[in-house]
Specification:
By secondary structure, the protein is of the alpha+beta class. It has helices spanning 2-6, 29-41, 45-58, 81-96, 111-124, 163-179, 182-202, 237-241, 248-258, 303-311, 321-332, 337-344, 348-352, 378-392; strands at residues 9-12, 15-18, 21-22, 105-106, 109-110, 131-133, 138-140, 160-162, 204-205, 210-211, 214-216, 227-228, 262-263, 266-268, 282-283, 286-287, 316-317, 362-363, 371-372, 376-377. Helices cover 42% and strands 12% of the residues. The strands form eight sheets. The chain has a five-stranded antiparallel beta sheet, covered by helices on one side. The protein has a three-stranded antiparallel beta sheet with strand order 8-11-12. A two-stranded antiparallel ribbon has the order 1-2.
Length: 393
């Protein structure tokens, strides 16, 4: 898999980037920066430094490109790419054992100054509508800005406060408390504590035993007033793996529920169960699904009326699956390591069938779980390798 990962690395001017998938993706912001963590774990340090410096140069008022078309970086409709950038910078400094990379110049700014720009812009508000909610410390996301980003028809808009964004935000603030000037450290630590409390207070639903996927809100609405959903999705796993949920009982409850989503080598994007908050998928004025039972387990047919409604509402994803295995060990301890490795090894059929030696983008949520989407997907490979190396260690 280490060799497979190199197939996605490409040259971009004097730096490097990552092709998100073959045969049809380009280099995407969030995909590239998620893949960076796998590259770091696999020892591709010099290559990752060039990727991070490339994206550091793209940063403007807290935003990074969502997708890059040649030299066109105007599409910045992503709330997670800047936060994955910070997560990758943290992974790099941990891997190398020093913070000197943070002092390197990108244009007229250092990496650390660019990190500060992202954080301060999220707090005060970015030009594209990302902003921190002061009473809770949580991050508001406009519609379609997360990785579940089908925008027409509106398959999973998730406008408001998505759980993985809060986990990434906590991870970023905690990192800043470690690397910023001593006079700023206490400020970041206080904010990190506030975010940690808010995730526990507003996302964990005692009655169902797992985290709400999103606190649904319109622009300007506080997370305190947002409407939590009960959709069982795998995004909550990042709250464990990024350290934003630390309570043992809560972690174990989350993992037991998320087990319902797992198939061999992938994890469903939504559970096959009713929801209390309706999720309408509307195309040209026509409702395409059952809003109170939006699970769609087969990814096939017309793109707008069948595939997009299924894309994040039951389709199984290879790239999120390793986080389940990682979270399993974090929740249940080292004695669960062999079980987690066995779960991760269930990807072997996907590796050997289809585009051999690679991992696909998605699979059907319904049996027999046919491979779909891109035949070879960068973040599927990188996350599998990152977690495999971590668990083997």
């Amino acid at each position: 898999m280490k060799q497979a990962l190199t197939d996605y690395l490409v040259q971009r001017d004097s730096h490097k980037s990552v092709i998100a998938g073959y045969p049809w993706f380009l280099d995407w912001g969030r995909d590239t920066l998620i893949v960076s963590r796998g590259l770091i774990a696999a020892g591709f340090i010099s290559e990752t430094r060039l990727i991070l410096k490339q994206f550091a140069e793209f940063e403007h008022q807290g935003t990074l490109p969502n997708v890059i078309f040649g030299a066109d970086t105007q599409n910045r409709d992503t709330v997670d790419a800047p936060l994955w950038f910070i997560a990758s910078c943290k992974a790099l400094t941990q891997k190398t054992g020093d913070n000197r990379f943070l002092d390197e110049k990108c244009g007229d700014r250092t990496i650390l100054e660019i990190l500060r720009s992202i954080i301060s812009s999220y707090i005060s508000g970015t030009p594209n509508g990302i902003v921190m909610d002061p009473p809770t410390g949580l991050i508001f996301s406009p519609s379609h800005f997360t990785w579940m980003d089908t925008n027409f028809p509106a398959g999973t808009p998730r406008e408001g406060y998505p759980i993985e964004i809060q986990a990434l935000w906590y991870h970023a603030i905690e990192f800043m408390s470690e690397i910023d000037l001593p006079e700023n450290g206490e400020k970041w630590k206080k904010l990190a504590d506030q975010v940690l409390f808010s995730i526990r207070e507003f996302f964990y639903v005692e009655d169902i035993g797992y985290l709400s996927d999103c606190l649904h809100a319109s622009p300007g609405m506080s997370a305190k007033d947002a409407e939590p959903d009960d959709a069982l999705r795998p995004n909550q796993l990042f709250a464990i793996t990024l350290g934003a949920v630390k309570d043992q009982d809560i972690m174990e409850n989350m993992l037991r529920h998320c087990s319902e989503l797992v198939i061999p080598g992938a994890i469903r994007s939504l559970a096959d169960r009713p929801v209390t908050k309706p999720l309408e998928v509307v195309h040209n004025g026509r409702v395409l699904n059952d809003p109170l039972h939006p699970y769609h387990g087969v990814y096939t047919g017309d793109e707008d009326t069948q595939r997009k409604p299924a894309y994040h509402n039951g389709t199984a994803w290879s790239w999120v699956f390793p986080s389940f295995c990682e979270a399993w060990v974090m929740a249940f301890g080292k004695h669960a390591n062999e079980a987690a490795l066995a779960l991760l090894a269930s990807s072997s059929e996907a590796i050997n069938v289809g585009c051999a030696g690679q991992l696909p983008e998605i699979m059907d949520g319904n049996y027999p779980h046919h491979q779909k989407g891109c035949d070879a997907q960068a973040w599927s490979v990188s996350e599998w390798l990152r977690v495999w190396l971590k668990l083997k260690k």
